[in-house]
Protein 1
Amino acid sequence: MKKPFIYGLIILIIIVTGAFLLRSSLLNNVSSNDQSEKESTTEVVKDEKQDNQKQSEQVKQDNNEEKEDINLSKFSYLPIEKEVSHRAVIASIENSPQARPQSGISEAPLVYEFLVEGGITRFLALYWSDIPEKIGPIRSLRPYMITIAREYNALLLHAGASPDGFDLIKELEYKSLDQIYNGKYYWRDEQESIPHNLYTGEYRIYEYLNDMEHVEYENRFNFEEIMIISDAKAPAEEITVDYWGNYKVLYRYISEENKYKRYLDSIDNSHLCEDGSQIEVSNIIVQFVDTSVKDDVGRLNMDLKSGDKALYFKNGLANEGYWEKSNEGYTNFYDNDNNIITLNPGKTWIQIVPTNTNISYKESDDND
């Protein structure tokens, strides 16, 4: 009786042990499979992250390449067709009634307006990436115009100069194309009367310009990356710059375009160019300078070095500030918090005026 019992007990132990071993083996297999699945899932997630990272890097690279492909003007921050290495060109353009409408002035990304003798004004129009086929009428220089041109190391286009202007060009050995000595770079329009009919253009000066030593420019101003256009009323939609000699410049802000249209003497007299277009700008800077009469002819002295107050207009708003001249570099414009001002991409006109000039602005009754 004992032996069968012992045999049965041994068989039972073997069965239980086998079952235990089988269960352990199954659990190990399940655990191993789970671990393999986890490792596989981890690898998939890792691969997906790497793919996403590669795609993100590719998108960034594509965006950077796209930005690199877009050339922006150093003077307007607007797209231009190709890179430019030649120096800027600055033309002295007449603004007497007989000279209007002018040619090419609306295409300049940057224009200065100065008083000259007789209560009229004259322009310095800067061109860089796109030089018009017709620019003018070209007239003579004053010393303060040469001072501005030096900031840009620009090729000056002019027809003579005042005595002090000639002296300054000679003293500085400044590179210019004076029509008096370089007539082949200019022509006269026989449909107009002398001296209001002298012009130049890209095809006349292109070879000369490209033979000159090239100049590398930085952005002339701090430009906004994004412009916000609003149709809301603004407190400086009509601006009047009251020069000496009963000559007035007016600007009207067009909110839908975020541009200022230019007028002469009254809002009914649009400042038109030869092609019939009205001058439109994105930014207006009024630079106040100490101005005095220096001779019997009425020629002027202008202090463009000492600094003074300034106003600037953009987005239909008026802003107060000041300007300073840094050695031979650009004249910088600051707000009242001592920050260099930021302008909208587009054309900028700088109105250089005597310190006592009346500048008024208001909200307009209506827009064009």
Note: Residues 99 and 196 are 5 Å apart (CA to CA).
Protein 2
Amino acid sequence: MLDPGLAAALLSPPGLGVLGLLIGSFLNVVVHRLPAMMWRAWWKDSVEFQLADPLAWQPLFGSQSRPPPQLALAAKAIDAELKKLPQETLLHPRSRCPQCGHVLRWWENIPVFSWLVLLRGRCSACGTRIAWRYPAVELVTGGLFAAAAASFGAQPSTLLWCLAIALLLTMALIDLDTTLLPDSLTLPLIGVGLGGALAGVTGVTPAESAAGALAGYGVLWLVGFVWRLARKVDAMAEGDMKMLAGIGALLGWQALPSALLLAAGLGAVVGLVMIAGLGRDRSKPIPFGPYLALGGLCSIFFGPALRSVWLL
């Protein structure tokens, strides 16, 4: 059994801050690899179940119809390219330089310190610049974990808030890069919220958590439905709906107005600046996940204060 003093130290702001630095390093891997793993799975499914499969073709084009031979050739070509790709998971292979393939040694993978002091922002093998976002993600994750310890106390239940923070950060970064919000992240956030409510550690009842999940999904579904009727385009992706459902499950339905108002307000301001000031194409979608993540994080730490402002 873990010594109580050691447990308190590990769950203190410095202890969880260090854990956050390590988790942030792993989040960088997830942000880079998870979308690639999803795309690989989609292409594999398209080859195996759609392109040249009569069972997928005939329900639409008729029972006597057959897929054009070009589709079979395309399926073979895609399959051949997929087989050339190295096998990759979130844990394997070890991190490497995307430019030269240099495998990072343990001392090159120390959060923040390696980038700042040992590598000075460059690959040790080829000298390619390493993006500043890697240590920034580690620092932000460490800071938020430390803030969670300071806000919720040095107790095991604080780890649930750290898990939720890590999920929100990962979703924000993946959506920013790819406009994807994977089910493998949004659905666990819903589970964390519902499980935390059942365990009595999130400050909301199971009924409030379930209502928050339903309302979070439903309000964005309604916005998307109305926008589609009015403008004939999709305004909301299902991933956004699931992400807000997760925030609602975690914090209860009471937190949704503040989280959504923050997300929508900041998203609108940034969108206008990007379109008017930076010339962004209006038809190009702007990912909403980063703003939902910010609304959720602010609600985690400042929920009662935000609700009091909103009620005024």
Note: The first helix runs from residue 4 to 10.
Protein 3
Amino acid sequence: MPALLELQQALRAQLLGEAPPPDEESALRLAIYRNTCLSTLVNALRLSFPAVQRLVGAEFFDASARAFIRRQPPASAWLNDYGGGFAGFLSGFVPAATLPYLADVARLEWTVNRALHAEDASGLDLARLALLAESARARVSFTAHPGLSLLRLEFPADAIWRAVLDQDAAAMAAIDLASGPVHLLIERDASGVQVRRLNVARWQFTARLCAGEPLYAALDDRADADISAWLAEHLSSGRFIAFDLRAPPTGATRE
């Protein structure tokens, strides 16, 4: 008698069309289950990538979604987590080759989706920072809010995304595809998910903080007024939820 894992693997192969069912009766039953399963997964992708669907149309989207599902079936039953590989799939999907910006729009939509479903977390208690000795503050390393992400995209996907969802034909016609790359900050606040463009310096500084680099490394001798103001905005906006202290830089005097 086959083990449970073997049965599950066989059913998965049959659902995805990788193996034939054992008999005609099983094939009929499986066809119903397969259609229901695929429809559920396609709808999950449709909810996560509404702008992508509008850009390519429902028929093209469904076909590409089904091709993606066969190549990358879900690894869990939590459908909000399904679709992380869709942008990468679209970048190599030959029928979408005439839309080189499509994968970037999908990357943005997936990041927006992740921000929307991220866990709630309270912002950093600034009073704890204020208690640190002056000599220790440069060694602070932050933990980013789970709803905060950064993206660097080759195409102006944020402008495309907004124009498509707003059904703004004039805005869509005004987009210059050669105006990229764009550096984006995506976060969830009290009013919903926000997508903001940053200049390169602010984006790089924020990326280093989100990667856990201590302040002395992230600042990198660039403690100008703009970066200092940007750090203050990060802290006041609750973009970081915790901190710890890293070792001092090589050659520095320990406390």
Note: The mean pLDDT is 87.
Protein 4
Amino acid sequence: MVPLMDDATRDQQGARILIVDDEPLITARVAEMLAELGHVAVVAHDWSSALQAYDHTIDLVLLDLIMPKVDGFKLARLVRARGTIYTPIVFLTGRADDQARQKALEAGGDDFLVKPISTLDLRVRVTAMLRIRRLTEALHRQATVDALTGVGNRHALETALQQRVAEGGRYRRPWSLALFDADHFKRVNDEHGHEVGDDVLRAAGETFRTRIRTCDLAFRFGGEEFVVILPETTGEGALVLAERLRAEFARLSASTAAGAQTLSCGIAPVIEAGETAKAVLARADQALYRAKQEGRDRSIVAE
């Protein structure tokens, strides 16, 4: 699941386009042309920095075919493996032969730009590819976004968790999972009605959509429970973020008829490979249970 911008926001801000090329002069020139077209360029000069820069905010990838260590063909496959939503890839190349085109398509590419790149060619390719991106986003939203709160649904959470567990095992990078629960939510429904309860859940959704980092992912786990996946985050860092989110929810929910509400949170840091998604969720749930037992309105980090 990924947070998606609406069309008005995207039109106002322009697209975020990742340029991957080992020649700085080329990336600088392409970035300049993209800026003239109203877009934001994110530049990487090798495969490693490209993978670090690539996330759900990237709308299009412009990828050089010939690079040292990991070429464009292999990098395209790595990008495709990481993505939870389809991001168009346009190859930058001095080779326009049929064999290269066929190989690029098999690697997951969508189109070509032949160097030297003209502004007109760039405009045409970028416009076409961003249309594909928007159509894909619309379909993705219907399938993966919780309609009431605007965060990811349960299906999207399961997909994202499996991906995070696989990546954590492969690259041995720390991450954390935070499980939030709205305190005394049944009381809100009983005393104020389900419409007010929905307003409280919308406040939670707004909190998680607008106050997490760009690398984080938020989901509605079910009922009044929410999950946030925090990449590259230890338990200590996750605790700081969880406290900020809880404070923001209290502020936003204060405008509902139910008044200011609170969240309890259980945090499961993941620092070792091999733990399953189910096990991570179970640890977060145990920590959440402790937070409830100790008086609610607090965050607890699992042992």
Note: The first helix runs from residue 7 to 13.
